[in-house]
What we know:
- Helices cover 45% and strands 13% of the residues.
- It has helices at residues 21-34, 65-73, 85-93, 111-126, 139-165, and strands at residues 12-15, 38-42, 54-58, 79-81, 97-99, 105-106.
- β5 and β6 (105-106) form a beta hairpin.
- α3 runs antiparallel to α4.
- The longest helix has 27 residues, at 139-165.
- It is globular and about 60 Å long.
Amino acid sequence: MKLPAANADARIWVDADACPVAIKEILFRAAEREQVEVTLVANQFLRTPPSRFVRAIQVPGGFDVADAEIANRVAAGDLVVTQDIPLAAQVIAKGALAVHPRGELFTPDTIAQRLGMRDFMEELRGAGIDTGGPAAFHPRDKQAFANQLDGWLARLRQARKARDRAP
Length: 167
């Protein structure tokens, strides 16, 4: 499966309300190292490090307000970090790449299945069936995310080199 190309001006958007601190720290370091803009979007105040590459947008509280903000601002080639399957589907439709904080890459090939599974689990919960919660965040999840991020950053570097070589 071919991943969408990063464009030279690509950004990283973070659905930050439920993003683990360890993932945010990886993103903050990558922002400085690669000079890529990282924007955290949440309905609460977020503390970010002093950086010209890291910013936070606080949106009003409400169902999917942060998701809508990201979906409205994302551009083709951007990377979105989210656990939200419907948001992942929206950004994929716009030509962006979506990755779960645990490192799962959402793709046009897999998103329909993930939406179906999400809806099925929601139906079970609605019927009173205990489906359990997510497993604890593990160091292997952090590593899987870092690997996905590194792949995207490599494509970003290639896009920037191509832009800089262009006449």
